[in-house]
Task: structure prediction
Amino acid sequence: MQTSINIKELNERIQQESAFVDILSMEINKVIVGQKHLIESLLIGLLSDGHILLEGVPGLAKTLAINTLANAIDAKFSRIQFTPDLLPADLIGTLIYSQKSEEFIVRKGPIFANFVLADEINRSPAKVQSALLEAMQERQVTIGSETHKLPQPFLVLATQNPIEQEGTYPLPEAQMDRFMLKVVITYPRKEEERLIIRQNLAHTFPKASPVLKPEDIVKAKSVVKDVYMDEKIERYILDIVFATRYPAEYRLEKFVPMIAYGGSPRASINLAAAAKAYAFIKRRGYVIPEDVRAVCHDVFRHRIGLTYEAEAENITTEDIITEILNTVEVP
Result:
């Protein structure tokens, strides 16, 4: 009885605390037409301290979406175009000699922002990619002998272009695992594209107004951790993760020759954190199985390694995740 009262209180508290989600979404939707899944994913990453790898052809409002989110939160935004000649110092900053003070001073790079768009991350060599991934993981940067904390909140949205692979440096699997979500975005529907045309040809292009402060997001992140997750949901998450590692134990013997490796413990953590953030966005104080299922594809898409056999039979990670969700018992 005590638990149910607590859940009720928690639910009411989360409903109050998450009221800003609707205001923020309305503000973003003034600028972005459609792309509901992309906006939800950005909010999940933001509220659960995770970074996002985004895959989609050019022109699908990837830059516009994160820029609009930064405007609506009154946060600092920076865009870094990854190129083969980019150096780690171009990203994190460097020491420069000041003749005036006769000493070396720190010039901070574009990584010192709340929202960082790493455009076409796979166009840069491994040294630059690892500098970014270290900043993502540690939330700090070392320049010379000094360590500098990155601002809060801090969200990296890295994009990959799926259609051009020449002259690129694909992210190694171990580095892909650092991203909480891999989101694949598709073309808008016909009605949405009609609105996009009208919006772009109008005299003035809409711009999001600040409706939140970065401190509000930092506060909301701690509230998201209070979202209740039952033991049954925890077991459900573990079953999904373990099904990617040991498919035969979950009546998925056909996937044994297809999966080279399954999700890491980071996958379990991220699936739980993303499910809590999704429940918060839906203004609920507790996680239900549908929350886990809603974020599962984005959390696992880049975490399941496929064998040559799977590729020969045109089996994708999407197929495997869908089959696992259909097979693992829902609490």
Summary: The two ends are 21 Å apart (CA to CA). The chain has a mean pLDDT of 85. Residues 227-327 form a domain with the Helicase, Ruva Protein; domain 3 fold (CATH 1.10.8.80). The CA atoms of residues 29 and 36 lie 9 Å apart.
